């Protein structure tokens, strides 16, 4: 077994993040500033420390619906070009400071138009922030455009994603409450994306069960699954530890469909009972294409390094496991193959090799 990596050591590792929401990762200080500048007067507190605590406690409810309500405040202050640019720039800075070398950050353009911005203006503001942040802080950030599953604008957002795919948008996503809003409601958007050779992921198997995963893959053709924790319901584990996979779970593993797992967030929304009981442990043991992610860094009061550290404590993971998760994520990114390979061989593997060498490991 590898020597147990510490949180500070993990922060130095070159990490890859595939599932992170822009409106779920704001700095509390920035929220207060933007609220004051825009006249937004509905914050539960204007003290950054109290506000941080409020977000964490409000999101820690065991309900996806209650968790999603916290976004009213972050979205509420992200309605101008200046605000969107600042949030994107600071996102790149914060991720780079945590050792992330490649990230795909998602947001829903339709939620940022209440002050008069058009969809193209919203997307351009975020792309400009990420572009400047990437250059300044030495991180590469790709953008996913998200459509809200309870709305009817998914085709419009899909077309927007295709229009901007050569200048920073790497894919498409749908998000929001799963129950009552199956991904098949947006089938026309997914068929359009497939015709355009575009990449997309779908939030599925978090608050809802196996049917949402089945629909996302077999009806909609998802390249990746956002969360996907309920795939565990299609796996039977016997007392001796052997596992029998159902047809859907076997298909997901056989096809190497990436699972964008977010351990802390899954606890908050009730999708998993504890880190130690999170399905990620079994899925890693069974060699599913598992990746580790943050989901919403503000609401979950977390970082990618902290997510890894929690898994180290819960499952005894060592450097080889953390590298395995990281390479999985880089393999699953929505950028061209040669660029993924260059990051794996030129940045990720050498970075982990240095950390293992410092720890006196082969």
From TrEMBL:
Pfam families with a match to the protein in the record: A_deaminase
GO CC field: cytosol
Residues annotated to bind substrate: 21, 23, 176
One function term, GO molecular function aspect: zinc ion binding
Ligand binding (Zn(2+)): 19, 21, 203, 295
Start and end residues of each Adenosine deaminase domain: 14-349
Residues at the active site: 206
Protein name stated in the entry: Adenosine deaminase
Organism expressing this protein natively: Thermopolyspora flexuosa
Lineage per the UniProt record: Bacteria, Bacillati, Actinomycetota, Actinomycetes, Streptosporangiales
